[in-house]
Amino acid sequence: MKPVIALVGRPNVGKSTLFNRLTKSRDAIVADFAGLTRDRHYGDGKLGAHEFIVIDTGGFEPTAETGIIKEMAKQTRQAVAEADAVIFVVDVRGGLSAQDHDIASYLRTSGKKVVLAANKAEGMQESPLLGEFYELGLGEPHPISSAHGQGIRSLVELALDGLLPQDEPEDELADGSEDRPIRLAVAGRPNVGKSTLINTWLGEERLVAFDMPGTTRDAISVPFERNGQRFQLIDTAGLRRKGKVFEAIEKFSVVKTLQAISDANVVVLLVDAQEGVSEQDAHIAGYILDAGRAVVIAINKWDAIDSYQREMLERSIESRLAFLKFAPVLHISALKRQGLGPLWQAIGDAWASATKKMPTPQLTRVLLEAVQFQQPKRAGAFRPKLRYAHQGGQNPPLVVIHGNALDHITDAYKRFLEGRFRAHFKLSGTPMRIELRSSK
Ligand code: GDP
Ligand code: GDP
């Protein structure tokens, strides 16, 4: 599981700037807890080979008693509770404030590991201004500049120190791993039907539980086999195991959802037919895409809506989940056990696509045929020249294209090529990546 770092501090100290620098993502994951002006943001961070989850929080005033400010404080407390480590951001230029003291004393009682970041410290590594932050009783302030990218690496190393898994066995699926179970996660908002679906699955006759070393009975990680294929259902956020069945618990944890997605090979994204595609569904979907996971969209409670609603729903999926248009959309009723066969089929296809082997000669042939069908646009004196392609990775499939002047290939042309590769190799339910490599 990826470690979680929360960024905490009063407004305007530079938390968002730091968040953007750590995640470099355009699409922060936002939890849409209704009625909030400023939410917690979640994103994926990466430092060298290490991955972690970052939570940005709004301004924090632990002593606030009413209104939005109090809500923001509550959000921050939740973020701290979910985190393995906290980066407490203060503003060197603004100096120490009473609020900083309040936050510090809250953090000291939280029992979490806290690293103190003195932001906006560009050009003042040795500044005497840093000294006053010792008063917070959180140890040494680490000068950083979020805006200029200074001191960030060592700051994050400190925060992650001791949290990273030691020598984790290489789990990337590759050749010769047919025996390994497909790691399956069911993601979706509370009440969408996750526990109903899982209980229905586990109650199916064709589904056989098997023993796997290291799986305890209580952990929500269930190994099972269906039609000869092994699966492992991984910890699904918001569920608890009670005897043989699963039940929904009130609390929905975004962090758990994100961790489950990064831990999975295939994600079943459940959408509630009665509720339609929510903002939060779209954010989860965006995260699945960023994580490069294979995904199947299952519209649950299909039994409960009429044909007009069905049509409206189809349209809203087309528009709101347009960026997942490679994902098959299934209509199911977990409660009435409808549509489950096709869902299994789609899960299997998605995984087969994600791990498809694409030999160089075939890839190159598809590439050259595509170019013959439609040439890339000339850019000034340059006409990009595409020569050959090879597979650079699986899960998701990565196609590396070699040639000259490839910097001039447009995104639209890349999408055109992706379409040709997808059609030829029948890739469904997996994102795919294309990398262009120009020779000098
Ligand atoms: P947040 O409210 O804590 O999320 O703060 P923001 O990230 O929105 O930043 C508040 C202001 O501080 C913005 O105007 C940023 O451009 C500025 N800022 C952030 N980081 C730095 C930094 O490292 N140096 C300087 N000089 N300004 C910064
Ligand atoms: P979870 O919070 O995602 O685990 O959702 P639950 O599995 O607890 O389901 C929430 C509610 O939706 C329960 O009342 C279920 O009976 C109902 N539900 C689940 N699946 C279906 C379905 O396919 N059709 C209908 N009509 N209701 C369903």
UniProtKB/TrEMBL annotation:
Q: Which residues bind GTP 2?
A: 188-195, 235-239, 300-303
Q: Name one GO molecular function term.
A: ribosome binding
* GO biological process: one example: ribosome biogenesis
Q: Where does GTP 1 bind?
A: 9-16, 56-60, 119-122
Keywords attached to this Swiss-Prot or TrEMBL record, sorted alphabetically, are: GTP-binding, Nucleotide-binding, Repeat, Ribosome biogenesis
Cross-referenced CDD domains: EngA1, EngA2
Primary role:
GTPase that plays an essential role in the late steps of ribosome biogenesis.
Similarity-based family? Belongs to the TRAFAC class TrmE-Era-EngA-EngB-Septin-like GTPase superfamily. EngA (Der) GTPase family.
NCBIfam families, A to Z: GTPase_EngA (TIGR03594), small_GTP (TIGR00231)
Q: How does it assemble?
A: Associates with the 50S ribosomal subunit.
- This one is known as GTPase Der
Please name the source species: Rivibacter subsaxonicus
Q: What is the lineage of its organism?
A: Bacteria, Pseudomonadati, Pseudomonadota, Betaproteobacteria, Burkholderiales
The gene behind this protein is der
